[in-house]
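thoughts on my protein:
***
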Amino acid sequence: MNILTSDSPQDSANANKSSNRRRNRSGRNRNNQNKKTASWDISQFQIEPAPGKVRFHDLDLPDPLMHAIADLGFEYCSPIQAQALPHSLSGHDVVGKAQTGTGKTAAFLIAMIDDFLRNPIEEKRYAGEPRALIIAPTRELVMQIAEDAKLLTKYCDLNVQVLVGGMDQHKQRQKLESDLVDILVATPGRLIDFATSNDVHLDQVEVLVIDEADRMLDMGFIPQVRRIVRMTPRNENRQTLFFSATFTDDVERLVERWLHEPIRIEIEPDNMAADSVDQRVYILSSDEKFALLKRVIANENAESLIVFANRRDEVKRLFEKLKREGIAVGILSGEVPQQKRVATLDRFKSGQIKVLVATDVAGRGIHVDNISHVVNYTLPEEPEDYVHRIGRTGRAGKTGVSISFACEDDSFRLEPIEKLLGKKLECKVPPAEHSE
């Protein structure tokens, strides 16, 4: 389907036609939402004002939300949070241009949690009717967003649920039927399955979040997302928060159709290519790459290392070769079953696995603060993916190292990357410690 086709909203009568089949789960006492935080006071979370910075204190957020923010150690808003939250908290639609790692997840979660705490629903509600819907392209990203949402709703009577492919559909259905869902985080395909079977109803969605829209375009998910958007209220009757790392003409057309008088926020990529990342480019032949990778793993002071390649078959070959070398290695790619991917990521976070080999799509869901090195085994085809990759390291106040292998087959990709970064990348032969 062409992305330029019409996106006329579903008629409200049609949206409600199956409401009589929904199970009533309105028994939760919304008046108890402050109970868990009754012993906590904002005076226990003191953050001094700082020039040029916005504190979460400055946003007049409810105490249950501020309590969770305090537990997470958040003090000052990131640039996208500082720019987006004043608008999203006021109910405006927001279009954000930002990469993974800018804090955009907390930006949209805080806005919806604030709204739901201030405006509890007193009338009957039904199972499978989310107040907020967050759509993201990969299972890893969906699960990361849901994890963040659960941390931020720790002291709120708000329920977060996940729908992703590759996991037990029956268990997901049981969870939906067992309680009301306030925040639903989903991949497009699995959400379509549940909406088609009338297990999920989207006509009561108050906040719609579309995350990483450019990646969903790349992966061919936009026809599915279009179907989902048509199931929600008209754009003037819901709040829509839309995020993308890049804005092509196709992305802009989606914004025009899905958002209502949006506020635009842009966080430039060079903010992501931080000074905390030491970017190195080594010139070599394609035949020399694997030997160099082994020496980087052995000789670099690497606590944990991610190796990126462009294709699934490349990632699989690298994984098998590193495993034969006796290296503690894991793999993240679309062909690996979801349960195994989750287990692999947990082992990587805990340090049981030192090296992780991943594709760009799988790598989007990696949020680990202690990654010391990123290796671009092959330079990415899209320059924005270079920024995403190196953004996996140098996080949480730590420094990191990015090492890119540039051979005769892919060195032409350096110029677009440099143009995006706004600076030249110095290319060198591998240093002596990485020689045979």
Remarks:
- The chain has two domains: 12-267, 271-434.
- The first helix runs from residue 12 to 15.
